[in-house]
Design goal:
The protein is an alpha/beta fold. The protein has helices spanning 17-26, 48-56, 77-94, 112-129, 140-149; strands spanning 8-13, 35-40, 61-66, 102-106. It starts with 7 loop residues before the first strand and ends in a 6-residue tail after the last helix.
């Protein structure tokens, strides 16, 4: 039997986190190859449905990396991403997905080592959790949309 290697989808902000990942690559700093990077212009543009779709398509974990507080090129996109992440964690629990499988963190353009550390730690955490065992229903995103439409927003 082969050892479990988690599949991770990483949504990285173009201006900070992606540049941090690029810095790690330019320095030839090794890190686990488990993450598939999706470059987004801003972490605030990561729609929760993208994350649900990543899980539906077979990801064992999803990583959202943003600019540090106050450093967003779009002023408050990273704050929006933080709020969405908190809401999404509550919904993932309802779908039977452990909240540890969806990680949010901050990595700046100069933090190549931090990028490596975040990815390495996330891979290790997911290896401990094992493969995502909940059903990956095709209607996960539909349930999410329905839940959002039926909340009052008074949290």
């Amino acid at each position: 039997m082969t050892a479990f290697e988690p599949k991770i989808v990483g949504f990285l902000c173009n201006w900070c986190s992606y540049a941090g990942a690029d810095k790690a690559g330019a320095a030839q700093t090794p890190y686990p190859p488990n993450v598939r990077i999706v470059r987004v212009m801003c972490s605030g543009r990561v729609d929760p449905q993208f994350i649900l779709e990543a899980f539906h398509q077979g990801a064992d974990g999803v990583l959202v990396l943003a600019c540090h507080a106050g450093d967003c090129h779009y002023k408050e996109g990273n704050y929006r991403a933080t709020q969405r992440h908190r809401m999404l964690l509550r919904l993932l629990r309802q779908f039977g997905v452990e909240p540890q499988r969806c990680r949010f963190d901050y990595v700046s353009a100069g933090e190549g080592e931090k990028f490596v550390q975040v990815v390495t730690n996330f891979v290790a955490e997911l290896k401990e959790l094992g493969p995502l065992r909940c059903a990956r229903p095709a209607v996960m995103a539909d349930h999410f949309a329905s839940a959002v439409l039926h909340t009052s927003g008074d949290d």
